[in-house]
């Protein structure tokens, strides 16, 4: 918790409100005119170095905060990455905003209709499907014909199994 206070104080200190010496625009303009006429001294060099240090420290704080955030998010979502019980086997577009999807969840393969809502069309045991087909089933990309052929074969097998029952 102490490191968060330190980071907060650094950010507030670096980006805190700056005081304005002149109250009006005319006074600011006059001061700028006087400063440009005056010969440059070492104070401008020190000011430039101070600004450079402030920029570098700000960058370190921002990058450090980003790294801490990414590490925290990675640790927090680590369980989600390892628990991949669900696998998307592919889908076939049927029209605008409509498709049929195959999803493997555990030892079941679900045929889902996706449109305005998601509806279960059929549930199939993964053992009844060819293991080789479900393992290497291509996910549709720009060319969904390979999946479409496999999908039609699997639907034909399901229909044949229902007729035999």
From TrEMBL:
Name of this protein:
Flagellar biosynthetic protein FliO
Keywords, A to Z? Cell membrane, Cell projection, Cilium, Flagellum, Membrane, Transmembrane, Transmembrane helix
Q: Which InterPro entries did the record assign?
A: Flagellar_biosynth_FliO
Could you tell me which species this protein originates from? Exiguobacterium alkaliphilum
Which Pfam families does this chain map to? FliO (PF04347)
* Localization annotation: Cell membrane
Task: Note the superkingdom of the native organism.
Answer: Bacteria
User: What residue intervals traverse the membrane?
Assistant: 46-69
């Amino acid at each position: 918790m102490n490191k968060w206070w330190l980071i907060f104080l650094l950010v507030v200190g670096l980006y805190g409100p700056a005081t304005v010496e002149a109250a009006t625009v005319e006074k600011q303009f006059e001061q700028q005119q006087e400063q440009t006429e005056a010969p440059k001294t070492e104070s401008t060099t020190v000011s430039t170095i101070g600004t450079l240090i402030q920029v570098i420290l700000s960058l370190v704080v921002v990058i450090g905060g980003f790294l801490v955030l990414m590490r925290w998010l990675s640790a927090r979502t680590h369980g989600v990455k390892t628990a991949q019980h669900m696998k998307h086997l592919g889908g076939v577009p049927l029209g605008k905003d409509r498709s049929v999807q195959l999803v493997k969840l555990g030892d079941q393969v679900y045929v889902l209709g996706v449109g305005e809502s998601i509806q279960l069309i059929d549930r199939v045991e993964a053992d009844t499907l060819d293991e080789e087909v479900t393992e290497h089933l291509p996910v549709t990309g720009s060319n969904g014909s390979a999946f479409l052929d496999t999908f039609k074969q699997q639907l034909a097998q399901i229909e044949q199994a229902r007729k035999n029952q």
